[in-house]
Structure formats: structure tokens, C-alpha cells
Amino acid sequence: MRSGELGHERPWRAREREEHEELEIMKKTLNR
User: Fold this and answer.
1) Distance separating alpha carbons of residues 32 and 17, to the nearest angstrom
2) What angle do CA 2, 30, 23 make, to 5 degrees?
3) Are 6 and 17 in contact (CB under 8 A)?
4) pTM of the model
């Protein structure tokens, strides 16, 4: 786990954000 990289966010919150970013990347790839 990368603590400190995203500031002092709760682990589940950081993971949620990472999953959201992955979804955004997938959308961009599909929209090519």
C-alpha cells in the first residue's frame, strides 16, 4: 500500500480513487 503518496487519505478512499481512474482510462481507450 502506498501510504503518504495520496496525502493522509483512508486506504479504502485511495483505492476507490484508483479504481475510478482505471475506469476513466478504460473509457478513453474505448472511445478511440
Assistant:
1) 23
2) 25
3) yes
4) 0.45
Predicted confidence band of residue 5 (pLDDT cuts 50, 70, 90): low
Count of domains in the chain? 1
Q: Is 2 helix (H, G, I), strand (E, B) or coil?
A: coil
Exposure string of 1-10, with b = 16+ CB inside 10 Å and e = fewer, is eeeeeeeeee
Domain that holds residue 2: 1-32
Sign of the alpha-carbon dihedral angle for 21, 27, 30, 32: negative
